[in-house]
Design goal:
The protein is 6% helix and 38% strand. By secondary structure, the chain is mostly beta strands. Bound molecules: zinc ion.
Length: 141
Amino acid sequence: MRPDTPADLLPEVTADTAPFYSGLDEGRLMLQECAACGRVRYPIAPVCPFCRADAHRWRTVDGRGVVHSWVRYHRSFVSAFETLVPYVVLTVQLDEGPRLFGRLVGAEADTVNIGDRAKAVVELSESGRGVLAFTPTAKAQ
Ligand SMILES: [Zn+2]
């Protein structure tokens, strides 16, 4: 299938990933928290990468962190994103631990720098599903 819209690229929701994606659909960032050591993790996994415990719970995280890196796309490699170029994708080191990535929203592409503060936000796709994005909150000190 050729993806023609960003909604065509949304991942399939499985039993393991449903809390993450249903959280986004409701405007919240939910991540796994290890029931043994308490660390928050991503990507979604059945076992804690820190202590190997399999018990976990899902919790809504604050989603604030520091811009670790970014990339600006000047052309689209899939037709679904042609209407978005140029756009920026950030990797953000969350204060809660994991490093996640998402499109920059709420700011011009040339205004974000490594070290800036950013927070997770949820964009609603045309299909109504939530997609993780980030918006800057403060410049680096
Ligand atoms: Zn653990």
